[in-house]
Amino acid sequence: MPDLSRLYKVGVVLSIDELPKKGGKPLRSCKVDVGDEIICVVTSAANVRDNSRIVVAPVGSSVLDDSGEEVEIKKTSVGGVMSEGMFCDSHMLGWKGGAQGVAATVPESFALGSQPPDEKPRPKGAGGNDGDGPPPADLPGLFEKKVKLSKEEKKKAAEERKARLKAKKAAKAAPASGDAEEGR
């Protein structure tokens, strides 16, 4: 299998425009700076945000489809907007972890237009430390016992919970009864 990642680039999303929904998933048109140019990518990936650093397969690069066939990315109309590439997901990049159809993001330390990493970047500090050694001793334990509430505190919490549920039911019932009165 050829190394397809050589043509992929790290880009940053400059702007996002919601496209009118015409059935299926909602589409978004994104202006993306890939270092040497600004391109438009149309996507349905919900995790794309302004200023996200995302791996992009620009026109001329290749991706593998679901059947393992190599497909060249071409400039094409998607949702009535010309798309000049596509966002890569972890699966396309050969990374472990990450869902299919979720745009692969990288930290700001990756320069625009650079190649994506060979492995999925892990955030420093994940799990409460810098990634080296055991977690700090001052972190609360996962299985520590919770503070016990007094009878009065439990009763007050139960009353508050009942009041919230009652208000929620009343809010749901109010529009339904209002619609019935309008129909008369």
Automatic annotation (TrEMBL):
It comes from the Eukaryota. Residues 2-117 form the TRNA-binding domain. It holds the Pfam family tRNA_bind. Residues 110-184 are annotated as: Disordered. Keywords: RNA-binding, tRNA-binding. One of its GO terms (molecular function) is tRNA binding. The keyword NAD does not apply. Residues 143-162 have a biased composition (Basic and acidic residues). This is tRNA-binding domain-containing protein. It comes from Minutocellus polymorphus.
